[in-house]
Amino acid sequence: MKALLCTHKADFDLDFSWLEQQGEVVRARDWTSVLQFMAIEYFDVVFMDVLTVKGDYALFNQRLAKLKNLTPIIYFTPDLALDREFFPVHPNLFGFLFHPEDGEIGKDWCQRIMVYQKLIHDSSKQMRPFLNPRGLGSFIGNHPQMADLYRLLIRAIQTDYTILITGPSGTGKEVASKTIHDLSDRSKNRFVSINCAAIPDNLLESELFGYEPGAFTGAQKSKPGKFELADKGTLFLDEVGDMPLQLQSKLLRVLEEQQVERLGSSGTIQINVRVLAATNRNLAQRVENGQFRSDLYYRLNVVPILLPPLDQRRSDIQLLTLYFLDKVTQRQELNFKGVEVAALEALQDIHFPGHVRELENLITRLVFMSEGRRLSARDVSNVYKLTAMAPNAGANKTNARDEIRPLWEIEKEAIELAMSQLDGNISRAAEKLEISRNALYHKLKIYGIETTKNHA
Questions:
Q1: 3-state DSSP call for residue 82?
Q2: Residue in 339, 378, 341, 383 with CA at minimum distance from that of residue 362
Q3: Parts of the chain with a pLDDT under 70
Q4: Residues 297 and 318 occupy one common structural domain
Q5: 422 burial class (0-12, 13-18, 19+ CB within 10 angstroms)?
Q6: Whether residues 47 and 176 fall in one domain
Q7: Is residue 452 a part of any domain in this protein?
Q8: Residue 48 placed within a domain
Q9: Do both 156 and 235 map to the same domain?
Q10: Of 57, 147, 168, 302, which residue is least crowded by CB atoms under 10 Å?
């Protein structure tokens, strides 16, 4: 691995031997020299201290965009907060390394970089411009598990097959379908979506296939259906598993013949539509139960794509949080200063049953309810209490021998005990406490527990 490293004078006590162990390291003195190096040499990754671009972050990214160089950049910071200027998730941004002094965490980031570089190497030349360090198209995330998803999406983009996208609610099924459309040959034509579960059964047929005057009470003029509107483009059928049985046979016929017949009409209309379908239900089980036609299931499930739950790609919470912070603060035109590193780490330790959609809602709530203009770990903690989303739900048990005590008190004692018994060893303490190293760092800061720099 070949890395470009740009440090600040404040980094004099940081040891980057872990990076040098990964391969060749070239050093740059400031962000302008980083651009000069990137213009003439290949690097697998760039590591930069946020202090080297503080106040110039937007300008740096503008000039970087002109280079058309998508080398992943990992910013590290000894600081305790990120200013608002760092909210935009630029294409080169791979993430923020909050503990550059911890070699194990640094090596983990290097491994993730190599997974990303392999994905780039394996992708066709045509698709490489659409892949970037932050994700693929509208998708944000570079957790190693996302590499397998992106491989599938890239194949789907290059074909015209029917796709069935599955996964828990809130994982981004519409984002996946929009990405497939936007990067495909059909992108110049319309992307039309319809939620099959949100429309009453008696209206869904007319919405899909259209109708002629007099087809039913109130039908005074002809109206094209979603299939016609999506001609030469893409139709996204969300929650297709909730479609009533009587409509499934008609949908199957349209998929096979590429023809629609409006309600109240005896004529057919030729269409050219690619169908992407999505569901959070187990369609195979619904087929077994007689709730979904087997022939339609096989027709839709030509290329199955399963989206991973957010818990399986926790490292992406950081970029997603910054993306949503930028989106919310810009939309509301809020005078918002930034976010504490401890708050970002706390969010990464939360279980989100509603996945990415729930994370976005939580970020919106946090911005609305934060007491100051910089999102803090205290804000996150306060929202935990109000939404009953404590990150360690298993700790919510009373001690039979004592009176009921606050959860934070019990947690703090457990961390102090682990750090004491294990001589401040972060890795072993995190393992014993069954939390991530980043989560332990966050809790040490929150509770003010001092420790020696034993990071092994």
A1: strand
A2: 383
A3: 371-372, 384-409, 446, 452-456
A4: no
A5: middle
A6: no
A7: no
A8: yes
A9: yes
A10: 302
Confirm whether 132 is domain-assigned.
no
Q: Do 45 and 88 lie in a common domain?
A: yes
- 0.85 cut: is pTM over it? no
Q: What pairing do the DSSP bridges indicate for beta strands 139-140 and 131-132?
A: unpaired
Residue 106 and residue 25 in contact, taking contact as beta carbons nearer than 8 Å: no
pLDDT for the residue 446: 67
CA distance 245 to 320: 38
- CATH number for the domain that contains residue 171: 3.40.50.300
297 and 194 assigned to the same domain:
yes
Report the number of distinct structural domains present in the chain.
Answer: 4
pLDDT digits over 121-140, tens only? 988 888 888 899 999 988 99
> What secondary structure letter does DSSP report for 23?
S
Query: How do residues 251-291 score in pLDDT, each as one tens digit?
Result: 999 999 999 999 888 899 999 999 999 999 999 999 999 99
Asked if 264 and 237 sit in the same domain, the reply is yes
Q: Are residues 107 and 154 in the same domain?
A: no
Q: What length does the chain have?
A: 456
Residues 95 and 198 in one domain: no
50: domain CATH number is: 3.40.50.2300
What gap in Å lies between CA 110 and CA 116, rounded to an integer? 10
Q: How far is CA 238 from the centre of its chain?
A: 19
Whole-number Cα distances in Å, 293 to 246, 271, 371, 382: 10, 23, 53, 48
The token pair that represents 278 in the structure block: 């999505």
Closest-CA residue to 376 (of 347, 339, 345): 339
The strand pairing partners of 89, in sequence order, are none
Q: What range does the domain containing 40 cover?
A: 2-122
CA neighbor of 451 nearest in space, from 421, 428, 426: 426
pLDDT score of 264: 86
Instruction: Tell me the C-alpha distance between 175 and 393, whole Å.
Output: 30
What gap in Å lies between CA 221 and CA 213, rounded to an integer? 5
Give tens-digit pLDDT for 345-383: 889 888 888 999 999 999 998 888 876 578 988 888 777
Share of the chain above pLDDT 90, in %: 64
> Is 133 domain-assigned?
no
Q: Are 183 and 130 in contact (CB under 8 A)?
A: yes
Closest CA to 173 of 204, 149, 200: 149
